Structures are given as structure tokens and as C-alpha cells.
Amino acid sequence: MEENQLKKRYGLFTAICMVVGIVIGSGVFFKAQDILNYTGGNMLIGIVAWVIGGIVMIICAFNFANFGTKYAKVNGVVDYAEAIVGPKYAYMIGWFLTTIYYPAMTAVLAWVSARYTLVLFNPNADITGGLCLALAGFYLCLAYAVNVLSPKIAGKFQISATVVKMIPLGLMVIVGTIAGLINGNTVEAVSTSFATSSANFDSVFAGIAAAAFAYEGWIIATSINSELKDAKKNLPRALVIGTAIIMAIYITYFIALAGGASVDSLRTEGSMVAFRNIFGNVGCTILNVFIVVSCLGTLNGLMLANTRSLYSLSVRGNGPKPQMFSQIDSQTNMPVNSSALTLLFCGVWFFYFYGANLTKPIFGVFSFDSSELPIITVYALYIPIFIMFIVKEGKKNVFKNIIMPILATIASLFMIFVAIYAHGIAKYKEAAANGTFAFPVLFYLIVFAVIMIIGLILYKRKKKEE
After folding, report:
1. What is the mean pLDDT of residues 428-442?
2. What is the pLDDT of residues 302-355, one digit of tens each?
3. Which domains does the chain possess?
4. Which of 304, 330, 299 is nearest to 227 (CA)?
5. Which pLDDT value is given to residue 295?
6. How would you label 81-120 residue by residue, b for 16+ Cβ within 10 Å and e otherwise?
7. Average pLDDT over residues 165-184
8. What is the CA radius of gyration of the chain?
9. pLDDT reported for residue 67
10. Which one, of 119, 77, 112, lies nearest residue 381 by Cα?
11. How many Å separate Cα 47 from the centre of its chain?
């Protein structure tokens, strides 16, 4: 094997588990409550939010699956951008994934994993206190250590966690649906949705943005492109199969929750009240353990992508000190130097997320939701890839290479609009009604621009040295 090259160690099942395991984690459990609150308890509008988010995910995943049949190198999405748009654009996407998208998502999952762990032992635990902060930091370091020191164990844990997280979801889908049909809660929730008029554009778009977070992460599966056996066949299969499974589970789970509790209870207490009502306190506690494992599985998958993100730039001779950060450890066959730096990025975003979500945010008006707002820029960065793919490959297959990329472009533009509306216009109107100012999306875009400019400076400096 060539020096500084990753081994082919993962199969199709691991890739599917990575898609499902990364996406299905904390989002489906706590964003369900957010969606009900955003939509004023309107179950039908909530279902629409889940459906729209799922359709966008499947359309985009189908296109990336199509890309996967043509290109395979180190990091899927970077490979596709390089082959379709060009090396400079690929670098900018890789820089965004390395410094913003992966570490911001990972930081959120570390906190959520700690939150559910504390609630497991004490339902009234302070999820913004020092203990939660310390535990989240521990989980972050643990996920890093497992992935860097033993990537095989990390892969096996990903499979195990995916299987485990299906238990509470599967039980709620089956038992909750049956219970809802027997006790009439589901029918009541749906019939009330027809009668209520509480939902408006602000709430609907906020619901879709929340669902988008729960669906995010499927693209991370492309980070093991170079380590996947028969990647040109297995990665597309994993993307298509995985995203279809995810959408089906999310929608049926959301409907089943109404069978375990009233919509008002779900809005105030979250999904755990449905588990408690159906399975009792002991059963709910056991299922809560599974949920913690589910969150840790998602955290593991995100960290898996983090440990390879900077490497994918360095192996191309880009980014800071590429010779240093492209080195592979002879014992673990892992890029330990680049992994260590991306752990630092995770720590920075964790500090930001934690500080921005305190009762009195320490960043003031510069506080924004780092779990949802990167959605704006990730979808924006997809669009040139879709468009250039049509230009280069469109004549070869009208459906796959023209129609689907056009639909993906429309879907991406829609998600950008939704995120800007939910985290910009709606937040501004809400703050203005209270005599204050808030426009979170603007401050996120400022941070995004600064980080991307730094990346561009590094790129140009490297090219001058060549």
C-alpha cells in the first residue's frame, strides 16, 4: 500500500449504518418537540415539515449517489466538487466542512449526548451547568480517542449503535401507533390539526428548518469514500437505501408519538412523556439508555468524519502545512495530526454553542443556532456542483444528469430560503415585537465569510509557494 493512503476496511453494511447512524441520533428525539412548538401543535403541518425535509434529503442524496458511481478518491463530496467544478472550489468546500460543518455538528451532538445522559439519572438535571459541560467535553475526547486509536472499533461501534438506536424508535412506531388507534389520541391530534389555524409561514418554515437539522449528516458518509470496499457501487447504494430508511422512520415515529401522549404534553415535556406513558417508568428508563447510545453513535460517526476532513485537503497539498497534516500513523493507519487539529475545531464550536445557548448568551446579538444555520451554506455550496454536473454530463442521461440535478438545485434553494426566513426574518419580527434586535442568520454569515476568507488566503499562499 502507498504511503499516507487509507486502507479499504469498510463494507456496504457499515456504509448504510453510517448514513442511518449519523442522521438518526438526537435530532429525531428533541426536534420533534421543537417542530410541534413551532407549528402551534399542528400535527399535520409537522408531518409536512418532516416530509419536505425528507424529500430534499433524498433528492440530494440521489444526486450524490450518482456522483459516487463516477468518482472515488479520499473524501466523497470533495472528490465530486474537484472533478465537477474544479480543485479550488473543492478546496473551499473541504475547508468549510473541516472548520464549520463537521465540528459544529459534532459539538452539538457532544452536548446532546451529555444532556440525555444526565436526564437519565435525574429528569430535572441542569443541562446548562458545569457537569453537563464537563461530560460533553469527555464524550468529545472519547469519540476522538476511539476513532484515532482504533478505527475498526469505531466502525463496529457505528454498526452496533445503529442497531441499538432502532430499538426505541421501532418500539414507539409499532406500540405507539397501535396505542394511538386504540385510545384515539392520533385521530384527535389529526382532527384538531384540521381545525386549528395557529400555523403560519413563520412556524412552518421554522418547522422545516428543525426537520432539516434532524435529517442532516447523510453527506458525512462520503468521508469514508477511500476506505469503502467497491466504493463506486457501495457508496451510492448506502446513500439511497439509508436516506429512504431514515425518512420512513422519522415520519412514522412522529405520528406514533401522538399515540403515547397529547400534543400539549409533547410540546411541554418532549417525546419522553410518550415513552413513559406507554412503557412505564422502568421501560422509559431502559429506552432512555438506548437513546443515549443512539446519540453517542451519531457523535462517533461525526467524529469519524472530522478525523478525515483536514486530511482530505492535506493529501491534495492544500490547507495549513499539508505535509504535516497528511501524515498517516503506521500503527493505526489514521491521520493523527489532522485529527488533533479538527478536535480543536470541535472544542471551539462546542464553546460557542454552549455560550450561545445560555439563558443570557455570552455572545449577545452574535449568538446564533450553530446546529441549524450551517444548513444554509452547505446547501448553497451544493448548487454549483449540481449545475456544473448538468453542463458536463447532462447529454449522457437526461433523468439522472439533468432532471435530478435541477430538482436538487431547486430543493437546495428552497432550504436556503427556509433557513434564512426561520433564522432571519422570523427572528427579527419576534425581537422587534419585544423592542429588541435579532437577525442570527446575518451573524452566522459574517462568521462563515471570515472563516472562508482565511481558508482562501491559505490556499493562495500555498499556490504562490509552488
Report:
1. 87
2. 888 888 889 888 888 888 888 898 888 877 778 888 899 999 999 999 999 988
3. 12-465 (1.20.1740.10)
4. 304
5. 86
6. bbbbbeeebbbbbbbbbbbbbbbbbbbbbbbbbbbbbbbe
7. 90
8. 22
9. 85
10. 77
11. 19
- Grid coordinates of 262: 397529547
Measure the CA dihedral 227/232/237/242, to 10°.
Answer: 40
Q: What angle do helix axes 12-23 and 231-260 make, rounded to 10 degrees?
A: 40
Mean pLDDT value across the chain: 85
Cβ pair 419, 209 in contact under 8 A: yes
Give the number of other Cβ atoms within 10 Å of residue 228's Cβ: 26
Q: Are 349 and 107 in contact (CB under 8 A)?
A: yes
pTM of the model: 0.84
- Please state the three-class secondary structure of the chain as a single string: CCCCCCCCCECHHHHHHHHHHHHCCCHHHHHHHHHHHHCCCCHHHHHHHHHHHHHHHHHHHHHHHHHHCCCCCCCHHHHHHHHHCCHHHHHHHHHHHHHHHHHHHHHHHHHHHHHHHHHHHCCCCCCCCHHHHHHHHHHHHHHHHHHHHCHHHHHHHHHHHHHHHHHHHHHHHHHHHHHHHHHCHHHHHHHHHHHCCCCCHHHHHHHHHHHHHHHCCHHHHHHHHHHECCHHHHHHHHHHHHHHHHHHHHHHHHHHHHHHCCHHHHHHHCCHHHHHHHHHHHHHHHHHHHHHHHHHHHHHHHHHHHHHHHHHHHCCCCCCCHHHHCCCCCCCCCCHHHHHHHHHHHHHHHHHHHHHCCCCCCCHHHCCCCCCCHHHHHHHHHHHHHHHHHHHHHHHCHHHHHHHHHHHHHHHHHHHHHHHHHHHHHHHHHHHHCCCCCCHHHHHHHHHHHHHHHHHHHHHHHHHHC
Task: Write the single-letter amino acid at 259.
Answer: G
